[in-house]
Each structure stands twice: as C-alpha cells, then as structure tokens.
Specification:
transmembrane; 5 helices; 50% helix; membrane; mainly alpha; two-stranded antiparallel sheet; DUF3566_TM
Amino acid sequence: MSGAQPQPKAQPQPEAKPPSPTESEAEQQPHRPPQAYPSPRSGKDEGRPEAVRKPRTGARTVPRTRKARLRVAKADPWSVMKVSFLLAVALGVCTVVAVAVLWMVMDAMGVFSTLGGTVSDATSADGNGGFDLETFLSLPRVLAFTSLIALINVVLATALATLGAFIYNLSAGFVGGVELTLAEDE
C-alpha cells in the first residue's frame, strides 16, 4: 500500500459580502434611488450581487417611461413634395368618387328632375322652354368639372407644401426648428 491517504472533500466557502460603508463614507457618496431593473449598460449580470436591486417598501415599482426631446431641424423639400403630391392625388380621387356617389344618390331621389322642372317653369317665356337644368348637371359634365378642380388642387397643394418646406427650413435656421418630446411605448 502506498502511504496516500484519502483527501477530505473541500467544503464550499460562502461568498464574502462587501463591507458596509461607514457613516463617513456614506455621507461622501451621492444618494442614488434604488433601481428596480438592471442598468441598460450591463446586458448581463457581472457576478455582482447588487446588479438588480429590489425596491424599498413604498418605493415605485413601475418603471418610468423614457422620454426624448428632439428637434426637427430641416424638412427635405423633395420628400415633402413627393408626399404632398401623393396625398393630394388621393384626396382628388376621393373627391371625384364622393361627387359621383352624391350625384347618383341625388338623381335617384329625383332632386334634379324636381329642381329642373322648377327652374324651367321660372325661366320659360312665350314659346321658350326655359333653362334645362338636368342636361346642364349631367353626370359626365359634373365629373369633368370635379376632375378639373381635383387636378388644380393637386398642383396647388404640392406647390404650397414644397414652398412651406423651404420656408420652414429658413425659419428653422433662425430659431432652431420645432421641438418634439417623444415617449417610449410601454
């Protein structure tokens, strides 16, 4: 037999706690509120027992919403022109469709025939039939007029929005632009 004796198993030692600060050290350190969540800088627990602190009794347990103050310093006129053009075209299409539906509803209710008869009676003279309102307010004529108005609206809205972007950029150069406060969703 060799003279080797079995070695006793080592007992795990409890982790040493950091010494608590003395009263004079505590006065020198700035007071920090307890954190309910880990710091965003440390993505993992670095072996420190104080990485996640539990709130004291009566402390706030709901995390605060992060807010950021931002400033719109410049609006790109080209992108403003493209977006305003598309929105104006969409508004023009909606206008034409709405006028067509409204005209069909009013025609089905007999509004044009009633108004046409009244206007024809009021404007008729000796042997003259008077003004024919029904042919003047026919669907093709109304839709052509509405399309012309929608086209003018597209050109004007696009031009005014682009001009507004230029004016905003000039004024933002003087006063700094519009400040926004954005909050993170919970």
